């Protein structure tokens, strides 16, 4: 018989991937962020970075492979539609230390727990006529108000004009540890050197579904796309267990950690051969202890990776 504890167990990687497939279909591609572009580049740490973290990635230059993507499991999603963009990247430092960051163009996630991820997605499963039932979506939102923050943020912000003209957030709280064993709780944010550039609704409506491809190709032919990685320093009142909750980052100190320079497009096969894993972090940087989403990601990514043909 099921013990009460087992009945309350959080969904595993398989259940999370099944819920994504239930909304987007099973395309034998990434169950989320199916559409994207592989890129390569470099990361140069800022002078201040070693004062926060002893990780080699924050003291010596790294090579980078990464991938820009459109959130969701639809491989034909339009680049001109509102939604989260992704930037995943792996830094490999001279000594072989590596770190993966898997970030979104939004400052919060849509769920606080894996069960909410499944509930949010199940409420959006296509029903009669292939469309989700708006009443189910509303009932879930009413019962789980924190799952509405991300959608509200997306609706009130423009579609980025380019993958290179938007901020990206790692969302979870991280702990940085320096060589003196001093720890600092931070959120990580990437700011585009090109500035934030968004499209008006009219401009977005005039764009083709794949306009980011050509935009990225011509941009990188001229110059690298650069981002500054900053650590936003947490204060006592800032939650570290809830990825749906923002910190008041405008009121927080931030410390530059380095410059991510994306130099060229890379064969997609290079990214498809691997899986960006947010828990792949070296000594000197760690993910949150009590955030339930952070540890749920790796098993879901592993299931998706094992099932995809690309
Ligand atoms: C429990 C919550 C989550 C689930 C179930 C989930 C699920 C997935 C899955 C199945 C993939 C495809 C992995 C692969 O096949 O390699 C993926 C990719 C991705 N996820 Fe998540 N995710 C979650 C949370 C997050 C969060 C919090 C962020 C951002 C902070 C995020 C950002 C991304 C990005 C950027 C990619 C694309 C990686 C690539 O380009 O290869 N996800 N996610």
Automatic annotation (TrEMBL):
Cellular component per GO, a single term: cytoplasm
PROSITE patterns in the record: CATALASE_3 (PS51402)
Keyword check for Cell cycle: no
Molecular function, one GO term: heme binding
Keywords for this protein: Heme, Iron, Metal-binding, Oxidoreductase, Peroxidase, Signal
Cofactor: heme
EC number: 1.11.1.-
InterPro entries on file: Catalase (IPR018028), Catalase_core (IPR011614), Catalase_sf (IPR020835), Catalase_SrpA-type_pred (IPR024168)
Keyword Protein transport: no
Binding positions for heme per the UniProt entry: 301
GO BP, one annotated term: hydrogen peroxide catabolic process
One Pfam family, short name: Catalase
Transmembrane segments: none
Residues annotated as catalytic: 33
SMART domains: Catalase
Domain Catalase core: 1-309
Record-stated family: Belongs to the catalase family.
Function as written in the Swiss-Prot or TrEMBL entry: Has an organic peroxide-dependent peroxidase activity.
Protein name: Catalase-related peroxidase
């Amino acid at each position: 018989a099921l013990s009460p504890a087992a009945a309350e167990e959080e969904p595993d990687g398989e259940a999370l991937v099944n819920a994504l497939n239930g909304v987007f279909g099973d395309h034998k591609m990434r169950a989320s962020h199916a559409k994207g572009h592989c890129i390569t580049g470099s990361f140069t740490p800022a002078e201040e970075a070693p004062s926060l973290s002893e990780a080699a990635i924050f003291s010596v230059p790294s090579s980078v492979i990464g991938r820009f993507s459109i959130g969701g499991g639809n491989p034909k999603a339009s680049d001109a539609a509102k939604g989260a963009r992704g930037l995943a990247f792996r830094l490999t430092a001279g000594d072989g230390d590596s770190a993966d960051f898997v970030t979104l163009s939004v400052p919060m996630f849509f769920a606080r727990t894996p069960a909410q991820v499944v509930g949010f997605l199940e409420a959006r499963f296509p029903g009669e006529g292939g469309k989700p039932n708006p009443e189910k979506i509303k009932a879930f939102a009413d019962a789980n108000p924190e799952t509405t923050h991300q959608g509200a943020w997306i609706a009130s912000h423009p579609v980025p004009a380019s993958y290179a003209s938007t901020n990206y957030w790692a969302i979870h709280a991280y702990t940085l540890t320096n060589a003196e064993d001093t720890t600092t709780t931070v959120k990580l944010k990437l700011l585009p050197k090109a500035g934030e550039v968004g499209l008006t609704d009219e401009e977005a409506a005039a764009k083709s579904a794949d306009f980011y491809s050509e935009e990225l190709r011509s941009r990188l032919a001229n110059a690298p796309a650069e981002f500054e990685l900053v650590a936003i320093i947490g204060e006592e009142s800032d939650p570290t267990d809830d990825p749906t909750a923002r910190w008041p980052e405008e009121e927080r100190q931030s410390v530059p950690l380095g410059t991510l320079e994306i130099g060229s497009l890379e064969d997609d096969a290079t990214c498809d051969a691997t899986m960006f894993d947010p828990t792949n972090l070296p000594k000197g940087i760690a993910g949150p202890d009590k955030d339930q989403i952070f540890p749920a990601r790796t098993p879901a990514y592993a299931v998706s990776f094992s099932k995809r043909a690309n």
